[in-house]
Amino acid sequence: MSTFHIWTLGCQMNQADSLKLAAGLERLGYRASEGEDDADLVVVNTCSVRQHAEDRAYSRLGMLGKRRQQGASLRIAVMGCMVGPKTDELERRFPYVDAWARPQQFDPILALADEASAGRDVSLGELGTLAELAGDGMRRTYGIPAGPTAFVPVIHGCDKFCTYCIVPLRRGREQSRPSADILDEVRFLADHGVREVTLLGQTVEAYGHDLADEQVDLATIFEGIEAIEGIARTRFLTSYPRDMTDRIIDAVADLPKVCEHFNIPVQSGSNAMLERMRRGYPVELFEERLARIRSRMPNAVIATDVIVGCPGESEAEFAETIALLERARFNVIHVAAYSPRPGTYAARHLPDDVPAEVKKQRLQVIEGLHAASAETHNARLVGTTLEVLVEREEQGRATGRTRGGQLVHFPGVKQVGRLVDVVVEQSTPWSLQARAVDAIALAVR
Fold it and tell me: Taking residues 2-16, what's their average pLDDT?
């Protein structure tokens, strides 16, 4: 039987794409291998948001190329955001790659797999054909995750075109999935033991605006999942301030399964910088959305993203970002230093004029703010009882997440997939240590 291995970089959307591709390959008669060494087909699913991610992909492709030179018969495919509309430069650099596929365009890899399996001991006619997988067949192919949580894309692409971002150029314009398809996938996942789904989109609240034949939004999907037996929790990311309507916020507050957990990138606290970034909103609108969330859900967990060192960022503009972070009191702050992405507006028209050492210093300042803020928020949870969905176990220790996304470790066995009430005993900025309520009750007896 032919085997495959998928090496995935980047965001949750890439993870979801890899899982779908794996399901498609399995329908073609392939079997997943644990590593690359015993795989007939190796797929590298790439990310281009940061230069570091591209560098890792280049390194992996270089190693695969050496294996081919040494006589290995494996086929190599590359997919994801590194693959743009033109692959001439990549093809020259990596001539041994057999197939290139843009995000969600699985056909080139499936065709390669179909061709590579010809003459092997697998009858593709019995297990499925490439024609059956093409088009609607692949759209309705769902992968089964290894644990009790799963990512479900609801909208692909992005229409925002921020100056620094390569995603719209690689993933294309926004395209929402029909609501029936999404709910069918969630039912499929529930039937296979999934307890928590995370709805994905580059700007997830934009879901539905392009569906002319049905009046739906993200809240509609939340409402549909409430009726699906087996699913205990619904999450969603990534948010965009201008698309986050009162109806969506109210749905998060009112629907029992939707977690009160928001990831809302602000990117900068300076209106001048936001305008250069073409983010499409001022700081005042961002803070108004935060206020609305906290008025409905005072204990909501809110994370944000910040980019430091974008072209032209002055000390005064950076200081405005610090001031916003201090006002907003985020639970989590994800921070990255700007790096030019070829093809973006910023790379073409805005000089990368903030010195590397300044970027590093600003990065460290915000990392310090994150650590302090996360430590304060987590310390307040000591002594409280929280619900944890257990995702994995190792050596008698269970690990899972609260509704707010905090990572929790506690003694436990045979708990994966269960919702467990725990009492928090210790905290760090990064995780919580706890004990199951049932274990405490037994100890008291």
Answer: 93
